[in-house]
Structure formats: C-alpha cells, structure tokens
C-alpha cells in the first residue's frame, strides 16, 4: 500500500523511543502508541522483555515485524536459540543486531569478520523461519575505505538472507547522503529508522519528522524494497509521545500538499 507520494504506508515506532514509559508500564505504553495510530512497533532487547511484551502487544492490537536484539557474539556470548525462540513467541520475523562498535569498521578484515558472523546468524535464524538484519550508527558511514563506506563493504559480503535496517539519521551524521545511500544499497534495505533534526551527534536536538534538515519523504521513497519505516527518537526534548505522533502525521500526509 502506498500514500500519494508513492511511499510505504506501513510505519512503526522503535520502542527505545519510549523506553522510560515502557519500563514503568508496558501495557499502557503500547496502548498509547496504538491510540496514536501505530500498527507496528519494534521492540529492543526483547528476550528479557518477552513476558511483558507478549500479552501487551496482543491486547493493544500491535504487531512487531522486527525487533532489536544482539545476535553476534562480538563482545559477549549470545544464546541465539533463546533470541530466536523469543522472537518467534512475539511474532518478530526479522531480528536486527543493533550495534557493532566503531573499532570493527576501520579495516576490511574486521568488516569481513562481521559479515561472516551475520551470515552465520542468518543461517541459524533460517532454521527457525526467521531473518537476521543489521542496524547502523554513524561510524559505519564515517569509515570510508578506498572510496566505499564500511556499511556498503559489509553489504557486498553479506549473504542475500541478511537484510539491512538503515538508520537514516545516523547515516547523515556519519557524512552520507541517506537518499543516495539507499539507492546504492537497493533491495538489501527492508527497514529504515526515520528521524529528523540537525543531523548532529547531539541526540537531544532530534526533532519530529519533517522539522529538521533531512529530506524525510525523499528518504522513504529511496528505500525501494522497504517493508516498514520505523520512527525513532534517541532522545527528545519534548513529550516523546507527541513527538512520535507528529512524525506519524507527517509521514501519512506525505506530499498531499506538494
């Protein structure tokens, strides 16, 4: 389904945005997001939250097509069977590793090892009927080797089963043009994080979609194989529920007035 801009109309919200409210009352937080108009959410660290998330998602009528949880044993061991079991229990079809530190993106050998680890995790996920993805920060774009960003070098080494979730705001902070990046990555990208603001590392300065410097609608359009556009704030100076509501309203309106 598309809106008048031709863009995806399946939007979700990363629950990290509302982490404080979630910690206080999971059910009430998800109910509030459903009332705002979200049909999808993207949980984070969902293995330890599965007991609370499962019934709360069902009661709020929300689905979780993707979720963030570590699947790579880079700095600490990971029980992938437990991760994939929790994902299946919550209806999460794509498990996205949210973070590989900056030092692993500075040379080809390190990037290749990360790609191999993601490919191995994807093979394990496939046996559970699930997918694996990777979510970037700024350093995967700030690191450029022989003219190619580390994220694109990673993508070239990934098995087709591995998908990408491009955090378009952090890509911009890292020095990339998010629209051009999404065009280059093509159908590898199935999810994006949608944020706005001044495109600096100051997370407190983030703004609702359409109120900062990022061309948000062009970014959404550039993700040709997009399944869900995920609204997120790393931090927000105002009421975060109002912030995500403003973002969703902007995305739904699209270019209707353009």
Provide key terms for this protein.
258 residues; alpha/beta; TIM Barrel; eight-stranded parallel sheet; two-stranded antiparallel ribbon; 10 strands; 42% helix; disordered N terminus
What fraction strand?
15-25%
* Integer tally of domains: 1
Amount of helix = 40-55%
| CATH third-level topology | TIM Barrel
Output the radius of gyration. Answer: 17 Å
Order of helices and strands: EHHEHEHEHEHEEHEHHEHEH
Q: Quick one: how many beta strands?
A: 10
Biggest sheet character: 8 strands, parallel
Structural classification: alpha/beta
Task: Describe the fold and architecture.
The protein has 258 residues and is of the alpha/beta class. The chain has one domain: TIM Barrel, CATH 3.20.20. 42% of the residues lie in helices and 15% in strands. The chain has 11 helices and 10 strands. The protein has helices at residues 19-24, 26-36, 46-60, 80-90, 108-126, 139-142, 150-157, 168-173, 178-185, 216-222, 240-253; strands at 11-14, 40-42, 66-68, 94-97, 131-135, 144-145, 148-149, 162-167, 189-194, 228-231. Strand 4 (94-97), helix 5 (108-126) and strand 5 (131-135) form a beta-alpha-beta unit. Helix 2 (26-36) packs across helix 3, helix 5 packs across helix 7 and helix 9 runs parallel beside helix 10 (216-222). The two termini are 20 Å apart. 49% of the residues are buried.
